[in-house]
Specification:
273 residues; globular; 5-stranded parallel sheet; alpha/beta; disordered C terminus
Length: 273
């Protein structure tokens, strides 16, 4: 389809939801010191972040321990919001410039976790990605259905609907999580969609293959994918991507590495002190 344009949208969640239970003080980032002002020879958290976003650093399993504070202050501070707005603006400008047919076949594919919904309340209490991922705790968090919307994604979603573009949610969450996912999406403002696609238990292979196959099915069914937004490379690589927006590669490394391929595992008992 269209040229793939990587728009790194560093999505955020509102401070009301995301600061709950978080006691550390937010201050200006000090990237070369992990924002804790303790110098670590040879490591710049900002450089590590850039390497991950550019897909030059791959196969990592956790955020470096010394970058936990840097990650937290970025995610809970103002820069996250500014970065998010910049890319949401570009994505909307692209959509507004399209000549749509109005036949109801134009769709925008949204990832769910850390794109449409934020798991930041969970990760804020689990080291911002510096702790080894615990699927049991994470699934417990998902089953609570308390994930807030990522505000810029929600705004983009609403504006796309006003343009006549329908939303399709494509997630790596298992079918067992369909009901709680649908309820959570509706609760935070995603009230309608064309399809909500979950990963079946029979599906094997990587997230890139799975999502490419699902997008291919959509196009074979007559839909036109004019936009595709996700928070990690596996959401936007592969085939049938149309114009792709990378909404939070940085956020994803806060939360978990692609190596974990978590999208089917989602939730803990929410943020705990």
């Amino acid at each position: 389809m269209g040229e793939i344009v990587l728009l790194c949208l560093f999505l955020f969640a509102s401070s009301v939801h995301l600061s709950q239970g978080i006691s550390h003080e937010i201050h200006l980032l000090r990237p070369r010191h992990g924002s804790g002002d303790h110098h670590v020879p040879g490591l710049s958290c900002l450089s590590w972040r850039l390497g991950v976003e550019a897909h030059n650093i791959i196969g990592w399993s956790t955020v470096p321990q010394v970058c936990e504070s840097y990650m937290g202050h970025y995610m809970l501070g103002r820069q996250y919001r500014k970065d998010s707005r910049a890319v949401a603006y570009e994505a909307l400008a692209y959509a507004q410039g399209l000549k749509l047919t109005g036949d109801g076949k134009d769709i925008w594919v949204f990832d769910v976790d850390d794109t449409s919904l934020s798991n930041l309340p969970y990760y804020a209490n689990h080291g911002f990605g510096s702790e080894v991922f615990n699927s049991t705790q994470f699934n417990n968090w998902v089953y609570e259905g308390k994930a807030p919307a990522l505000p810029e994604s929600l705004q983009l979603y609403k504006k796309l609907l006003n343009l006549g573009i329908k939303a399709v949610f494509l997630t790596g969450r298992s079918e067992a999580l369909r009901n709680i996912t649908a309820a959570n999406l509706k609760k935070v403002g995603y009230h309608t969609w064309e399809k909500l696609i979950h990963k079946g238990s029979w599906v094997t292979g990587t997230a890139v293959v799975y999502k490419s196959n699902e997008r291919k099915k959509l196009e074979k069914s007559g839909y036109r994918i004019i936009g595709n937004i996700g928070d990690q490379w596996s959401d936007i690589l592969g085939t049938n991507t149309a114009r792709s927006c990378c909404d939070g590669l940085f956020q994803k490394w806060v939360l978990h590495s692609e190596k974990e391929d978590l999208e089917g595992l989602l939730k803990t008992n929410g943020p705990s002190k």
